[in-house]
Amino acid sequence: MRIVKGNKTVEINEPELNKIIENFPTVVIDLGTGDGRFVYKNALKKHEIFFIGIDPSEKQLQIYSKKAVRKKLINVLFVVSSVEQLPPELRGKADKVYIILPWGTLLQKLVKPDKLALSDVAAILKKGGTLETVLGYSPNLEPSESKRLDLPEINISYLRNETIPAYRGSGLTLMSLNPTEPAYLRKLESTWGKKIGLTQERPLFIMQFTRE
């Protein structure tokens, strides 16, 4: 498994990962973490929780990995990977997985559900662990990306009837589905969330699942 430490990339195996996280009762993973702000900021405040940010861009991950090295944080890890190739070392490790405002193919695989991808996401959760997904895009606000990915307009009805059944088929049971307001995004320590949270007309939804 490739991780970013500062401006370097190194490999660790599963025994090494287990050693790193063994003294932390809770592990939280942020899939599609971007620059890693979410895991970095939360690791600063919640020393008893181990945070893992996953993103395919090494360059993006370096931004907050460098800060974590300077702060000598021992409860955060930045992993170079994607939903298509989640490291097997992470299977069954997470008490909670966040996917906050996914973009690109990650968004596509969640909204037009890819059962294989959803099963892989479920697999990194412990049994009884939770998945929280925050969706927020609009064909009106992102016409080119919506067209490129052939994304539908999202609303409660679409998510409940077209999206959620695939999650259930991947071992994820719905706990809640609710619209939310841009103010919620401002509370999240997410760079992308802070940027698009300023757009009042953006539809936003939170889906929470538990792994069976």
TrEMBL record:
Highest taxon, organism lineage: Bacteria
- What is a single Pfam family found in this protein's UniProt entry? NpmA
Q: What is this protein called?
A: Class I SAM-dependent methyltransferase
Q: Which InterPro entries match?
A: NpmA, SAM-dependent_MTases_sf
> Gene3D superfamilies given for it?
Vaccinia Virus protein VP39
Q: Which UniProt keywords apply?
A: Methyltransferase, Transferase
GO biological process, any: methylation
Q: Which Gene Ontology terms cover its molecular function?
A: methyltransferase activity
